Amino acid sequence: MTVCIKCGKESESILCGACRETTDIERLCVEILAYRPGCGENPVWDAAAAGLSHAGNFKSVVFALSDRLLPPKREYMKVLSIIGDGANVQKKSRPWFYEIYDKNKDAAGLSSFEINRLRGVALGAYYMDYEYEKAEETAKLLCGAADVPPQAYLNLAEFYMTTRRYDEAARIIAEARARFRDDSEKAGAFNYLEKKNRDRMEKAATGKGEYMPNPKENAAKVQARYIAFISSLGIEAKPPVQKSARPKPIPREDYPDPTETRDCGFDTFVAFDVETTGFDPKKDSIIEIGAVRVINGVVPESGENVFQSFTKTIDRKKLSEYVQELTGITPDDLKDAREVWDVFKDFMDFADGCVLVGFNCISFDSRFLVRAGRYAHIEMKNAFFDVMSYAEKFKRELGIKTPKVSLETLADALSVENPQAHRALSDAVTTAKAFLKLKEMDNPDMPGGLDDMIADIESWDD
């Protein structure tokens, strides 16, 4: 059982029987679209909005209500129920919108304001779908109209900026300001557009950073279409300089998650570490991989069982001052580095099926290796062992009181020297030594651990 959206009484549908007969549906739709949930003016609507995952979704009730209207008002209200106060239809809804718009754009029964509202939405959809000729036709209709909604002005200005007509965008923004000078909410949007347009003009003056579409699919085809269109306007544009080719990555959903092992019963393994441009594996990149192949508990620090390599970043992301200061790695170090997918292949050959031992490697390092593996088209079948998790059971014995164990804290507690912290190879060596010492504590029958135990027993007679 629900309640009637008009009177608030229990009802099996949006409107009870009585309200269906007496309510002006169009007016009710307009009122709902203008309503601000939580304002307290309508307790029934506030309660309905509060029960939704997002209060703004309350406007979607208009989609159902409008079924009681005749075309083209019905379709017009349905469009507004989807976009609310916004200017654009989401990509997934654009095919539906185009069908609605094509059938109703010339239909009688809408005011000039309503027609221009739909035109504004169509303009945004066209240029975001790279249909520049259709967008241009629609923009001309809006520019010659007397009753243009603010949302249509927003899309007009954006379209002219997108097609590098900054003077025309400035004129549109000035006209919109004059029409809606008393609306402080709209003024904020126009202020933003004005600054954006000014920034675009400055970039155009320097010949750098002008807009060029760059979709994930068919980028070259879309860019050629864009260049042809703005060239027809007398605006010169050159194709963007192509970045060095990079392989298409395996989709994340098709790449296996890293495998973790908590069994520490091995003495031959590869300890590793990565340095990165930041903390987000979706956006940041590896800049260095360091590793050592430990055989029967012997940690090498040079020779064939040591691996270290800088890598270029996947998206050519620049090194922040923070990363440079933390790691000591500079842009010059990466200038002649190889691509990360090529370095990853060598690293996987070096690891050769061994358990990969790292510090905080499950939640951090392995996730960056996954991204590199997707570009290299090589799946990681090695299991990961996380020393940070392993060290938790020794915190009290080691006198570590911090909530989280860091590599620096663990190394200090175990008297393991790390001569170059936050460099991949040095951290990998430190991780390997710390891991082996923790194993000795965990199993006193291990070599080294047994000697210490005997020495302790002998000291009892002193």
Indicate the CATH architecture of the largest domain: 2-Layer Sandwich
CATH class of the largest domain: Alpha Beta
Number of domains: 2
Radius of gyration from the alpha-carbon trace, in angstroms:
32 Å
Taking the alpha carbons of the first and last residues, their distance comes to 85 Å
Instruction: Give the overall silhouette.
Output: elongated
Question: pLDDT below 50 for ≥5 consecutive residues: which ranges?
Answer: 446-462
Series of H and E elements:
EEHHHHHHHHHHHHEEEEHHEHEHEHHHHH
Q: What would the average pLDDT be, to the nearest integer?
A: 90
Biggest sheet strand order reads 3-9-8-4-5-6-7
Strand content: 5-15%
Give a concise summary.
This protein is of the alpha/beta class. The protein has helices spanning 17-22, 25-34, 43-50, 61-65, 73-83, 94-104, 112-128, 132-143, 150-162, 166-179, 184-206, 219-232, 321-327, 331-335, 340-351, 361-376, 387-391, 395-398, 407-413, 424-442, 449-458; strands at residues 2-3, 10-11, 259-260, 269-276, 286-294, 306-312, 338-339, 356-358, 383-386.
Provide the fold topology.
Elements: E1 2-3, E2 10-11, H1 17-22, H2 25-34, H3 43-50, H4 61-65, H5 73-83, H6 94-104, H7 112-128, H8 132-143, H9 150-162, H10 166-179, H11 184-206, H12 219-232, E3 259-260, E4 269-276, E5 286-294, E6 306-312, H13 321-327, H14 331-335, E7 338-339, H15 340-351, E8 356-358, H16 361-376, E9 383-386, H17 387-391, H18 395-398, H19 407-413, H20 424-442, H21 449-458
Helix pairs in contact: 2-5, 6-7, 7-8, 7-9, 8-9, 9-10, 9-11, 10-11, 15-16
